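Worked example (supplementary).
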Amino acid sequence: MFKNISLGIYYPGNSLLHRLQGRTKLLLLAWFTVYIVIANNYMWHFAPYIVLAALSFLGVVISGISLHHVWRRMRLLLLLMLLGAIPTLFTTDGTVKPLYTFGPFPTSFDFIRWSIVAYGVLLTIYIALFLLPIPSLQIISLRSWLKRFRIPLIFITLGVIVLLWLIRNIPPGATFPVGPFVITNLGVWSLFSLYTVFIVLYIFSLLLTMTTTPIALIEGLTMLLTPLRWLKLPVDDFALMTLIALRFIPTLIEEVEQLLKAQISRGADYAHGTLRERTQSLIALFVPLLQGVFRRASDLATALESRGYEIGSHQTRLHEKRLGAIDYGVLALVVIITVGSFFV
Amino acid sequence: MTDHIISVKNLYHTYQSGPLQKAALLDITMEIERGSCAAIIGITGSGKSTLVQHFNGLLRPTSGTVAVDGVNVQARGGDLKVLRQRVGMLFQFPEAQLFEHTVYADVAFGPRRLKLSKREVRTRVLQALETVGLPPHTYAQRSPFELSGGQRRRVALAGVLAMLPKILVLDEPTTGLDADGRTEFYYYLQRVQQKDGVTVILVSHDMSEVATLADQLFVLHNGRLVMQGTPRAIFGQGNILHQWGLTEPPLSELLIQLHKQGLAIPLDVFTLEEALHALQEIETTRHEKENV
Amino acid sequence: MNASPLIDIQQITYTYPLQNKGKSKAQSPKALQNVSLQIQPGEYLAVLGHNGSGKSTLARHCNALLIPDSGRVLVKGLDTSNKADQRAIRDCVGMIFQNPDNQIIATVVEDDVAWALAVRGLPVNLIAERVEQAMNAVSISHLRKLPPHHLSGGQKQRLAIAGVLALRPQCIIADEATSQLDPLSRREITALLHQLNQDLGLTIIHVTHLLEEAALAQRVVIMEQGRIVMEGTPSTIFTDIERLRQLKLAIPEPIELVSRLRAAGLTLSREALTVDAIVREIVR
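After joint prediction of all chains, the assembly is encoded as:
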């Protein structure tokens, strides 16, 4: 049912991680960040990273959230990082001694031309698969799978044409060197440490938001930011603003849907038409939406006043309680393990 | 042969939300007569909004067919642009959708999208404003935000009427209006139905509203069509609506209770005049008996 | 007669400030003109009037959301214009509004009931106890963990009432609180307000444009153009149907039926105002 789907990524549960106060978890996250910055300065010192990896794995297991859910939220990040890995690996400042060198490889322009021809053949086959009425290819799943390559193929084809134009005057026998590729200690270490840091911190933040309700998170943050209050910064007002934003996001989403339907029903078209027409249609969506938001804001201000909100008054925290034994226990344990790892 | 402007056959609609599915409409078959006023009633979540959103193609059937004035709304394809012109739709609190500086410009928004000549747009806007009782010479150049709640709602109605729809779908059109706003809105709505021959489809949970306006009622509950008939027939069946979380209009409720108390009042009495007449008759017979 | 009214409105006049320059320079009309009204503790008062008659403006003066231009409003003897007393006044007089959505602040039902208490810095266990009682009083305990956007309109208004009840007020003002609800929820909320008046002795000010909602009130006040134009018990007010119609109020059909029957010579008690009462009266 719709009613069970709520916004955000909080997973209800009663694990150790769920029972920790929001503040404890926020502090732990901050501590891990500091720890990683320090660990980064010790090259080839693996103990801190092993500890971090072990702790994050342990965290996921304790939290009771299925590995599948965590993986689903991680895979995009991993893919992006893989793309970034190649330049990092070859990072060198020229002074460190190379770990491994390969190349330079002499490459001929003939080779490039033949590659382009091969690409052309593949492209033709691809287009043919779409156009020719071969019965075994009518399978929908195969089609949609092929369809996914449409957009990247257009870009690759354009790139290939540009390349062809650039090398049009070069004689076929000419060669040029590719490389040498140098992999250094520094490159490997940067890659390794960066990877670990990203993944581990991402997992920890995921665990934080998956095991803490948004409200507890806001309250925890407000309490940790108490020092800012001495600087006369409106920490509590900021917390109230965040709370109201969280509260009204679903309501506003519904409102947008309704407005969209209403304007479509009287002629607005968001998918077709000239730029001018589309701009008009967008105005027809955003102006009423904004008016609605202002009306709500004004109503809410009245309600807040009526319910007795006063700026700067002392407030009771509903979710954040005193730090208990488990909070101090977990904090102490993590600090001991992490600091200890430096001396291994 | 009656002329059905909308006919729905075995309509199912299932919402997909992530891995979860929710059946919103189950096997709906119904017909709405051209030029009539039909009301679709049911509590929140009964599927009434989902149903009417099929009539102008905002939603497509999961299975089954919806034919609207000869146009088929199918699971895929079809020319929805034509359909959206023929079917005007007014959502709850429609005054919230107004956005232009003047009443004129706001009503002209739809017609301008149809690539009509300037003159044609003008004629349509002026006519629509006239129809909803906002004479253009006083109202056309005013800002919609200066008007009263009831007038703003009529501007929104004019915005839809300027598309010259053959069918007008209204979702809870009078919620939040006071007695005057309501009466006026009903008056202009009935005028649209009778003068321009527009088929009106009302989505409502207010039975008094339905009793005054509708010729035919369709009761939805949990995505199923559980009952249909004229208001007189449905409200005359006693407290039958209670099982679906609805109430009869106050007058019918009163008469039903009187009937239960053993008063010889016919159940199909529906208007105030009829009720008055029936009660007076009962009173006279009672007197006669006492005298005898 | 009555020693000290809970709310004492003394000859107040109020004009809304002009909001933008684009409007005509002419002074906007007075929203309230020389209104006086005393509300006794434990009273159930209905304030009737069409949209724009000034009834909401009057209601907003009762918990210091608006301060009169002239005249004064005393709540338990405290002047609403005195800033230092305003929180005490709002603790005593709570308000629920027309739009069910725009008065709910927290993301979960029970947190919202607790919100006003938390803002006042009360201890956690006291908050928990009061939240529990307030939710039970309006029967929404089973919804406690739900986010507000999963509630129906009627449930949202119950939540708003619970949020006010948790503060242990003496008076609740329902400012058009039923006008955006469906008829069944409307009746339920009206019945709930009546029940709170009967069971807890709460003073209720029910602002509405629907006559049928005023039938259970002890006293009815009708407003028009910023003035009180009629005042009395429902049974006296409801007999003058022509006058009510002039005041742009919709006459419920059962009431009209009774009035017409009476005109036709039947003797029917003036107390017959609700459907049940009318049935009893006719069958007799």
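Two points are worth noting when inspecting this output. Residues 21-25 of chain C have pLDDT under 50 and may be disordered. The domain at 7-251 of chain C is CATH 3.40.50.300 (Rossmann fold).
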